[in-house]
User: What shape does this take?
Amino acid sequence: MRSLFILSSAILLSACAGQQAVPEKSAPAPAPVAAPAAPAPVAAAPVEKKAPQCYSGDAGKFFNVGDKTTVSGIEVICATNSDGKAGQWAAVKK
Assistant: This one.
């Protein structure tokens, strides 16, 4: 039994050692490309800044800043956070 294991190991090792490494294929040199003509200057469209909004999973939609609604039975208002970049729910002050 031991000799069978040793014989199969020897055959496996000789098969692996007998394989040659595959030589790397050299990529053909790319054909020279003519320089493209400079594109005409295009005026950048003004980027419209979106106003912050708050999402309500109960309603399944976004609310604009200042909108009031009820979330989980509590009356809330959509307000901007301290940096003004996003909206967050705040309790309505009575």
